[in-house]
Amino acid sequence: MRHFVFDAYGTLFDVHSAASRYRDAIGAQWDRLSQLWRTKHLEYTWIHAQTGRHVPFWTLAERSLDYAIAATGGVPAGTRDKLLSAYRTLSAYPEAADVLQDLRRAGARLAVLTNGDRGMIDDAVAAAGLGGLLDEIITVHEAGVYKPNAAVYRLACERFGVAPDAISFQSSNRWDIAGAKAFGFRCIWINRHGLPDEYPDMPADLIVEDLKPLTALAARS
User: Fold this and answer.
1) What separation, in Å, do the N-terminal and C-terminal C-alpha atoms of the chain show?
2) CA neighbor of 124 nearest in space, from 199, 210, 215, 58
C-alpha cells in the first residue's frame, strides 16, 4: 500500500483530551461528560446526513457539548468556552507523529479524511505538529454530507487518483471502518480500547491496538 488515509478524531487525535484538561473544573462527572459529548456529536452527524441537512461540524460540537453539560448537571462559568477551545487543539496520540514520519520515509502518500471543518482540523494538525507529514487534508464539506456516506470516501480516491482498493483506511471508529469497507477500501481498525467487533458483513482487514503496526505494513509494500 502506498496511499494511507486516516480518520482524524479518535484515530490521530484523542477526542477526550479536551475534557481531561479541565477535569478538575468539571469534577467527578468529567469522563461521563466527555463520553456523552462524543456520542452525541457523532449521533448528530448521522442524523444530519440522513436528513440532508448539512451543518458545520463545529456547530454540532457546540450543540453536543451543551447537551452533555446539561445531562451531567452543569459546569462552572467559563468552562464551556475552555472546552470548546481545547477541542480545536486536541492532543495527538503519542505514536501518531512517529508513525506518519515512518510512512513518509517508506514512500507512502498520506491524507486525513475527516468530518471536521477545515478550520478545526487545521488547528488540530498545527497544534500537534503534524502539518508537514500530510500530503492532503480532505474534509466532508467537499461532499456536503458526513461519513459514512460513500461520497465522502470517494473524495480520497479522487484526490489521489486511485481506485478504492489502492487505499489503506485507518479509523478508530468501527462504524467508519464499516462504511469504508463497503466502499471498497482496505481497512484497518485502530481498536485502542479492546472493544468487541461489530458489522460482520463489513469486516476490517486488520485490527490493531494503535498506529504502530502501520510502519511494518508500509515497509513490506
Assistant:
1) 5
2) 58
The C-alpha cell at 192 is: 485502542
Catalytic residue among 7, 102, 117, 176: 7
7 is catalytic: yes
Q: Is the pTM of this model over 0.90?
A: yes
In what helix (H) or strand (E) does residue 40 lie, and over which residues does it extend? helix 30-51
Structural domains in the chain, sorted by start: 3-14+90-220 (3.40.50.1000), 17-87 (1.10.150.240)
Rg of the chain on CA atoms, in Å: 17
Q: Are 211 and 93 in contact (CB under 8 A)?
A: yes
Residue 121 in contact with residue 8, Cβ under 8 Å? yes
Whole-angstrom CA distances from 183 to 50, 140, 153, 176 are 17, 15, 7, 11
113-123 tens-digit pLDDT = 999 999 999 99
Torsion sign (Cα): 26, 57, 181, 94: negative
